[in-house]
Amino acid sequence: MVSARDELQAAVSGHPGSQLLLGQERLVRAVSFPGWLESWVLLVQGAQTSLEVLRDAWVWRARPPWASSSQHWNMWSICEFLLVTLLSLVLINYMKMQWSARPLPPGPSPLPLIGNLWTLKFSLHPDILNQIAKRYGTTFTIWMGQTPIVVLHGLQAVKDALVSLSEEMSGRPVAGYAKALARGRGIAVTNGHIWRQQRRFGLSTLRNLGLGKRGLESRIQEESRCLVESFASNNGKPMDCNYVITHAVANVISAVVFGHRFSSDDVTFQKLVEGNDYLFVSLGSKWGRLYDAFPWLMNRVPGPHQKAFGKKEYLEDFVRNELKYHQENVNPEEPNDVIDYYLAQITKTKDEPDTTFDYDNLVQVVIDLFIAGTETTTTTLQWALLFMLVHPEIQEKVQNELDAVLETSPVYEDRKRLPYTNAVFHEIQRYANVSGAGVPRSNIKDITLNGFHVKKGTIILPDLGSVLHDPKYWETPNQFNPNHFLDKDGNFMSNEAFLPFSAGHRVCLGEQLAQIEMFIFLTTLLKTFSFRLPEGVTEVNTNYILAITLKPHPFKICAVPR
Ligand code: HEM
């Protein structure tokens, strides 16, 4: 076989323009798909030849050796060559995308390099995904740049994958940015053995913490009393409730993981909450996507992603300090929080060769619980208060039911005696749809989805928003309507399409904690205050802001004591 270098040399000794064309020709031959391997060899050879020509042109400047004294390097040829090379590369890239799209479910045609990013407006907008589903059905493919994502739309498609193929669908795609932040540790962005061990530990610890007299519920009740004080201190004046709710929710997680709460004046705690918030937002940012695409480069350039790494370090130091305190002061016989349980687990498993329980994983598990549990719950509670402002008649009906039923501080068990309140809280979660299009998964084995063969390792997005608004399961999917959860006699009625926490092996780890928390916070607040719009304000924006969660626009609220 004649090597690229031999061909180049032959060309150099021949016609002056032929070496320019050689690289082009190889690139064009690569497009004609002789086969994957051959195609790549030609592509690499084409690029190599082209680079060598350019290098020589640079070294010899305006006078290459084959040129006679009157012949000068023609800049036009270089420009022409570069243009054709570029176009060829774009064309190759496009054809490769089309080629790899063949076995995947149908979807809008991707553009070279950017895929469907333009159509998607560079994010996973629920309305756009709806439009695509109308055209291509419940299982379709979109391209985020060069990466195909199979989207599952509506309850049936999501259930067929997450529930019927729970094990196969239990992978999490871990792109560059999340990987760099979590460094392969913890629960939310790990896979395989490490994920299984850490997740199992997380679940059993949350269950253990729910029991006993210092159980989760009494901690949440304690926090709800502090939240009431924060609202009350504003004396019914207009306030932005984001800050107080975020602190209350972060304090519940603090109680779970560190075993104690923090005063909202505590500067270190404020920095923890702020860092946690920053990291969560940055995970969904454009800088994060740039990092996914060019990790080597992004590691070397400044930007908000570098700030996120700094915040992550602060969070890690914070957790390590707590860890040290626990090691020095806590009785291992009486575990009281996640750190205590984890330390006991490290000791218990230290001689097991395949153990993944160590201090680094401990730190990441704690951070995962903070990141996954704070923003989602805070945002849902914000939506809850916003919907109460927009639907004062619903707020009043809930309050009447609470007055009639509750005599003492609410406990989660009370939901069974409060069917209307329970229905309203479920409807808040359904309608708010804080997880938007959901969290991506990947399949750990080859599977068939809706008749399409999907190869192991494909990114699959179970669109949870489409389930929570699936017209087959909700009478008025686009209206806030508590009747979605009530039967004709006014009893609470569950709905199989209520999946805000997802489903299957990777279902939200904090589902129960979040539900208890939201129930106790909201019942306590609505029993104590009437929530009203500030005087003179007649309208509220109920559209969402598309961040990593679907967030409400900032709003002011008056908490008037009842
Ligand atoms: C309203 C509140 C919440 C909502 C709507 C929510 C929703 C979700 C969703 C949709 C997922 C992705 C599941 C999947 O991969 O399909 C998830 C994962 C997760 N959530 Fe939540 N969540 C909430 C609260 C919490 C809380 C309070 C905690 C912790 C205490 C928590 C911890 C986690 C963790 C650790 C994961 C990753 C699980 C894994 O990858 O195995 N979440 N959550």
Automatic annotation (TrEMBL):
UniProt: heme binding residues: 508
Co-factor(s): heme
Record InterPro entries: Cyt_P450 (IPR001128), Cyt_P450_CS (IPR017972), Cyt_P450_E_grp-I (IPR002401), Cyt_P450_sf (IPR036396), Cytochrome_P450_fam2 (IPR050182)
Biological process (GO), any one: organic acid metabolic process
Keyword DNA damage belongs to the record: no
Pfam family, one: p450
Record keywords: Heme, Iron, Membrane, Metal-binding, Monooxygenase, Oxidoreductase
Top-level taxon of origin: Eukaryota
Localization (cell): Membrane
Entry's Gene Ontology cellular component terms: cytoplasm; membrane
Recorded GO MF terms: heme binding; iron ion binding; oxidoreductase activity, acting on paired donors, with incorporation or reduction of molecular oxygen, reduced flavin or flavoprotein as one donor, and incorporation of one atom of oxygen
PROSITE patterns registered for this protein in UniProt: CYTOCHROME_P450 (PS00086)
Main location: membrane
Family: Belongs to the cytochrome P450 family.
Protein name as annotated: Cytochrome P450
Native species: Leptobrachium leishanense
